[in-house]
Amino acid sequence: MIQMVGTDHTLAPVNVRSFFSFTKEESIQFMTQIQIDLKARGVLLLSTCNRMELWVSTDRDEPDDLLHEICLFKDVEEERYRGYFHGRTDEEAVEHLFALTCGLKSAILAEDQILTQVKSALSFARENYFTDSVIEVLFRMAVTAAKKVKTDVTFTHADSTAIEQAVSMLKEQRFRLKGANCMVIGNGEYGKIAANTLVRNGANVTVTVRQYHSGRVEIPSGCSQINYGDRMEYLPECDLVVSATTSPHCTIEYEDLLGMHPDHPIILIDFAIPQDIDPRVSRLKDFTLYNIDDFRSDAVPENEANRDAYLRTREILAEEESAFWFWMNDRDLVPRIHRIKDQAVEDYNLRIRKIIRRLPLSEDNQKALTGDMGRAVGKVVAKLIFDLQDHLPDREFRDCVAGLEKVYEEEDLNS
Description:
This protein is an alpha/beta fold. It has three domains: 2-152, 2-Layer Sandwich (Beta Polymerase, domain 2); 162-294, Rossmann fold (3-Layer(aba) Sandwich); 332-414, no CATH class. It has 15 helices and ten strands.
């Protein structure tokens, strides 16, 4: 069984999502606990700014109470948080993952960052030995489907990231970014995206760098830098501060600003989960605080072009999901089919060898031609066999595979 439970920006506010976020160390501890407690074959944890999801594959027919395991690890009463979570199994879970990975369930429709986050979650689980073949293939095929959507489908939207949404909002409020002093706290992927976006809009951008990272951190082009420890001294000079770290601790505390009285209003934007900026800062009159939930677009196509793109995306995903279920339901047949294909290619090469030798080609060119033709034959044979699955009941298809195997078994006996 494939099973998941998770929360996201549509189910839980930022403070709840912050509480259920996981550091890398916590992720390893938690996935280890899941493997032991549930005897799970595969486990994967997806933890981003907008969502947290636990994915599990097991040999059981009945679902486990995954939320109970999450709340046990976080040491909270599950009934208090059950309304913030949604669970899915098998077909519903697979459909959800494929749609999620290509951005259909993102706060900003069809954004690209979720694809990177899903790939990173799979790599992390794999590197720490938590994946099995089901989790591995499911997530790899979801990533492949998302890449196909990105290649074949174009969504029209002006603001594809949260920072671009923030920039649009600031411009609507007549905040002048050109020449504004901005500080970006965080050197990760999103910190760099934020810094680059602000630079493109004419801002004077300073990024913070922790001293023990100073020799290894790439500073975005056009940005200045200060030590992370000097951020509070520099903050009164800023018009805008963006914080986007993966730290479990606040980068700006309420007490840090309590006695600070800048001579102009300062906008603070917190893109982090868990939150970087103490929410109590919103009480202070000289500061305006926004968080990740203040910048999102509806996940419903808003124009005809996007509606067409949405429908095309659903068609692609349906095809890719069918391919996954073929693998899932008949995965024991896949190596058998590949053996038949290899035997067919070998059979073909033996039959064509005499013809190839008569051609006025060098030995190397004969080998290259044989290889190219063999690969083409292999693709045709595999396509014929795999396409039979779409037109035959499972039992008849299995009989067909068994019959093809006997063809070459008998040839081997007679040779």
